[in-house]
Amino acid sequence: MHDDPEERPLQPVSAALAWVLPGLGHMRNGEIRRGWMVMLGVLGMFLLGVLVSGVDCVDRREDFLWFLAQAGAGPLAFATDALNAFLVKSGRVGELLNTMQPDGSTVPISTFKGVGAIEGVGTLFTAMAGLMNVTAVLDALRGQRRDG
Q1: C-alpha angle 78/91/111, rounded to 5°?
Q2: Please, are residues 133 and 73 in contact by the beta-carbon 8 Å criterion?
Q3: 135 to each of 25, 83, 90, 113, how far by Cα in Å?
Q4: What's the pLDDT at 148?
Q5: Residue 67, SS3?
Q6: 12: Cα within 13 Å, side-chain hemisphere
Q7: What does the pLDDT look like over 44-55, one tens digit per residue?
Q8: What is the helix, strand, coil percentage profile of the chain, to 5?
Q9: Distance (Å, rounded) from C-alpha 101 to C-alpha 113?
Q10: How many CB atoms lie within 10 A of CB 130?
Q11: Cα(105)–Cα(124) distance, rounded to whole angstroms?
Q12: Under DSSP, is residue 11 helix (H, G, I), strand (E, B) or coil?
C-alpha cells in the first residue's frame, strides 16, 4: 500500500486488536501471513511458558514487574493470572502451607507453586511473549507496509 512511513496513516483500531489477540491487527491491515506468524509466535511462546512451569508463572501480586511485561500479551495474561488466583492461591489445587517471612509474619503458599529454575523459565517465556506482542502492536499501529 504505502512504502513511505510518513504517508501511512496510524491504525489505532488495528493496534487495539493486536493487543486483544496477537496477530489480529496485522490481519485487519491486510497482512494475513504476518498476522498468523505473530499469532503463532506470541501465543506459542506464552503457552509454552505456562506449560513448562504452570499458571503460577503469571502472578501480578507477587511478581508485578514481570507481570507488566506479560500483560503485553493481552487478555491471555490477565486470564492466566486470574486462573492462578482461583486455583493455586486459593488452595483449590495443592495444599496451603504457612511460611515464615523475614519480618516474622506468615504467608500461605501453595504446595503446587513452582520454584527454582523451571519457574523462572516459564516467567521469562511469558514475559518475552508479552514484549514481543508490544512490538507487534506498534507494528500494527503503523499500518500495512506493502500489498498482501
Answers
A1: 100
A2: yes
A3: 12, 26, 34, 31
A4: 45
A5: helix
A6: 0
A7: 999 999 999 889
A8: 60, 5, 35
A9: 17
A10: 26
A11: 29
A12: coil
Question: Residues 6 or more apart from 95 whose CB is under 8 A from it?
Answer: 110, 111
C-alpha angle 129/130/131, rounded to 5°?
A: 95
Dist. CA 7–CA 17, nearest whole Å: 22
Residue owning grid cell 506479560: 70
Rounded CA separation 56/40 (Å):
22
pLDDT at 123 (0 to 100):
95
Residue type at 95 in one-letter notation: E
Cell 516474622 -> residue: 104
Owner of C-alpha cell 507487534: 136
Ranges of residues in the chain with a pLDDT under 50 are: 1, 148
* CA neighbor of 69 nearest in space, from 24, 14, 133: 133
- Cell numbers standing for residue 56: 503460577
**Which residues have C-beta within 8 Å of that of residue 84, sequence separation ≥ 6?**
55, 56, 58, 59
